[in-house]
């Protein structure tokens, strides 16, 4: 891979995580347990959509083939999306979506921190903007996790199941592939093993406060980073891409 | 504004206050006439308070229910920019709901009570949100027409005699006019697009035109408590005046888009400087208001489901807060 190809692939993968998670959160509009949460969810999903736009736009610029944010977001086949399996998981109940946000954001905030120090200015500038938003999201998801874990017996039991169910999607976050290696070698990109150690420490602290048990490291599901998704993904894309696919070439 | 004057005043329970004296009422009216703002702690007639609670809570409910028809296209927005714009708009509407509930709370009613009345079907909200959004163009039509009609109604409310409501309206109006411009721009893009897109825009106008006109409420002759609201300076213009203003502004906008307003009898009266239009189908309006619109059941069911699904979450949050408070008290 040339260095430009590395950056295009890496930026669009970051974009995929942000877009697919944002899209999932959008499905929750008008379904939140309270009005304040409605606002937070809309606000945070808007942040993720905004981040995806920055990553895709940058990937398109680096590529220099005339693709814009919408080409990346709406006009690629499923296998070209390289987001983590975790972010495409369906919303489930409030405990499920809270755990998904928490596990991802605990990782993403560390990844962004590392990316602010990478040697590619395009990515480091986006990371510096995104990290401010994601720190705030993480505080919010952590607080909810603590409330649910240490709330009622029912909420504790429910959110423990959510955690056990989603834990198997965390391994993928720390398994470096060729792209991670190249990003690290060529641009001082994130060191995923270091991030894993920090992530475990941070997650353990919040889980302890939430009186939740950290699940055993069971079998881990992987594939998203290589474009091998779960069955959920096809439906998500079909819905999201609907107008672009139904009216090819139209301007919206 | 999405309050169409839908309930009768003064039927929300027995009046437990002491009888209001003529002196009090005269002094109150004098303040209103002098354009003074009434604040939450000021004395006010019970009927004034109830009228405001009804109007502000209906408005708040409308903002919240209004998130649904637009939310319906969020996952399918055709570009990243449109997705972001629509999401920001839906977020604004949730914010409007929140300020308006807070403004109503200053009058001594809790948000829980108000939401309870919405979910039970007792409280009303704007009829417009009981129509479905069937194509992407409906998102443009809603911004252009629905936010447009809302602004027509709300600009005078910025001068409403009740301080907390008028201040909420100032903030809300700025955002609504932004929504209106974005909606119109969306329509313009469709109308400059392919034949299919233009047809989509025309179809959206066909379906939303009459419901948008109904947003101003019944004809003046049929509007039961407008006069009192006018005297209290809660309302500044009558339903028909506002509707006429909206039509006069909107018809040229439709012409600029190259769309035709679905009213064959519409014509511009040079003598009055106003458009004349066909009669509104008031039967449809009263049907939708009384629960028989295309989406009434669906909209309330979605709200109730969110409320029910969230019960364990709110309970957990309360239990956690109680534990924290107890721990702090013990420390
Ligand atoms: Fe409004
Ligand atoms: Fe609004
Ligand atoms: Fe609006």
Question: What's a quick, concise take on this entry?
Answer:
The complex is a heterodimer of chains A (252) and B (331). With 252 residues, chain A is mainly α.
Helix content of chain B: 55-70%
The profile of the biggest β sheet of chain A is:
none
The CATH topology of chain A is Ferritin
Ligands bound to this protein structure: fe (ii) ion
Q: Structural class per helix/strand content of chain B?
A: mainly alpha
Topology:
The complex is a heterodimer of chains A (252) and B (331).
Chain A: H1 3-26, H2 35-63, H3 69-74, H4 85-88, H5 94-115, H6 121-149, H7 153-166, H8 171-174, H9 178-187, H10 192-209, H11 232-246
Helix pairs in contact in A: 1-2, 1-9, 2-6, 5-6, 5-7, 5-10
Chain B: H1 22-33, H2 46-65, H3 67-71, H4 80-105, H5 111-120, H6 137-157, H7 163-191, H8 195-214, H9 226-231, H10 239-257, E1 267-269, E2 274-276, H11 282-289, H12 296-309, H13 311-330
Antiparallel strand pairs in B: 1-2
One fe (ii) ion (FE2) binds at residues 2, 63, 96, 150, 172, 176 of chain B.
Structure description:
- With 252 residues, chain A is mainly α.
- Chain A has helices at 3-26, 35-63, 69-74, 85-88, 94-115, 121-149, 153-166, 171-174, 178-187, 192-209, 232-246.
- Chain A has a single domain (3-246), classed as Ferritin, core subunit, four-helix bundle (Ferritin), CATH 1.20.1260.
- Chain A has 11 helices and no strands.
- In chain A, 50% of the residues are buried.
- Chain B is an all-alpha fold and 331 residues long.
- A two-stranded antiparallel ribbon of chain B has the order 1-2.
- Chain B contains 13 helices and 2 strands, in the order H-H-H-H-H-H-H-H-H-H-E-E-H-H-H.
- At the A-B interface, helix 2, helix 3, helix 6, helix 7 and helix 11 of A face helix 3, helix 4, helix 12 and helix 13 of B.
- Bound molecules: fe (ii) ion (3 copies).
- The site of one fe (ii) ion (FE2) has 5 residues of chain B, from helix 4 and helix 7.
- One fe (ii) ion binds next to helix 4 and helix 7 of chain B.
